[in-house]
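Re: duplicated header lines in exported structure tokens

Our pipeline writes sequence and tokens for each protein into one text file. With two proteins the header for the second block appears twice in some exports. Here is an export where it did not happen, for reference. First protein block:
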Amino acid sequence: MDERLNCVGALAVELRPGTRARAAVLGQIAAGELAGLMARDLAKFAARVSELDLAVIAGLFDPVELLRPGYPLHAELSRLLALAPGGGQPQIVAFGAQAGELPAPLRPDPQHGDGALRLVPFLLRGEREVIAEVGGQLEEVLLETGMAGADTALLAQEKFGAVVEHARYLTGHDLAAMTAMQYEHAGLGPVWPLIEAALLRPGDEIWLDAPPEPLARYRDGEVRIALFDPEGWAEAGLAPDTVGSGQWPRAFERFQMRQRQLGAVLDAHGIAVSYVHCARGCDVRAALRE
């Protein structure tokens, strides 16, 4: 995806806690209505939005579906928008369901359909100079003042069959920052640097090396996690200092649960995960580098 020609973001729809949308995707007519209102809203934050193409996927996605290496949903939007016929004038392209389904590359995954924060992805495309100006303006204002119009929120509520608490616009960077904060509050902060590297700096080498957290290394699109037996775990210094010898079996079980939790989060973000068995006496860090 040529970032110089694209500006990516999402309409974030926050559902009332304990509720779920009746529809994960909209039909083509409703999709066009929603995209038109989104174009109007975005032009209020950056006037030159009207000079750009806007593409919208009229479906509700979880943040993990957008925050994946290569940003595949937005990359597919960019590809399809480049193929759309047009007369050289800015256009609004909405991708809605046919026979109740979106094309497979644009389809929300029902496995991630239970969250309260749902996202309608959008992409702006146009001349480099205009994209740079619009992108800068959206980065400055959306996180603080990017509320959707009341009629936009009401249309989303009606068409998706959801009880909407708030509807606001986010850039891709806003979404990453918000997700990092949510992970920190949920006790998942240690895994975020690995995800951030996969999203923004895929050539970096990043370690999670903060006992008693699992030991993991990101490099070349993959996270390698050290897998221990109890003796190797103790030798590696990952057991909490406050754990007595009689409590070790339960503490090791909690450590393994934490490994599975972090591995599941990485997998949800589309990041490859592999486990490297490290027995007692193993040079753990060397094993993760192999």
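Second protein block, exported in the same file:
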Amino acid sequence: MTKCTTKNKVRQVMDELVARFESGDVPAALAVAIIRPPKDRPCSRWSFHNRVLQSLEGTADARGYRQWQQVGRQVKKGAKAFTILGPRMVTETKEDKRTHEEVKRSKLIGFVAIPVFRYEDTEGEALPGYEPPEPPPLEEVAARLGVTVSYAGSDGGTAGGYWVEEKKIVLASHDPSVYLHELAHAAHYQVEPTLKPTGEDPYKEIVAELSAAALARLYLPADQQNLGYKRGYIAYYAKRQEITLAKACLNVLATVGKVLALILDQQQDDAQTGADAA
């Protein structure tokens, strides 16, 4: 690869990131990227910038072609790589002014473009699960609602999803707020069974995120509540409905109350069961 081509590729990556900021895609990716991946994934050693790029590509695990082969997986035919940026270092030898000894130091002189492939674009040996180091709060509530919870690579750029027909939550993030959002979706379908299992819908998203915000205040420490992000999330869908943030929240308040009542009732049932067993 020529020097000129490398510079162009690096510039393309930066331009793409700027474009994503302008389109509004990045805030959601930031929420995912801020969670450190397991240490057995190469991306755990990447810069935060590169983890954001990975999240924008809709995956929780990306590696180079040979890196995938090393873990028994092969890139699918026709799969396209995306690009991350790696540091371009040189070693300089300089004299230490105090000791007059020669000292070798590494110096960053630029970046190189590195092609990587998503987990979803590979096939082969199964890899260890994506389970978090500790379960999210209210994990037991999903089971009581008849909903399964699993962790996997992100599909389609989302941090998580709820599949209505299969009654399952699939998470691509260890952020407990993501789980609470999907749990709220699951409960919403139970308190309002006439809901159609369609795709993205402002009404359902506002109900889920407002419910998740309330649960976060109850069960998460302050540094994990992400209330600013939640406010922006709801404001985005309020704007799509051409109403104010306050109006959007008021419109769904009764439904959110039912969703929270169902979730908290299930949680209290679990707590009572534990007390009876003791």
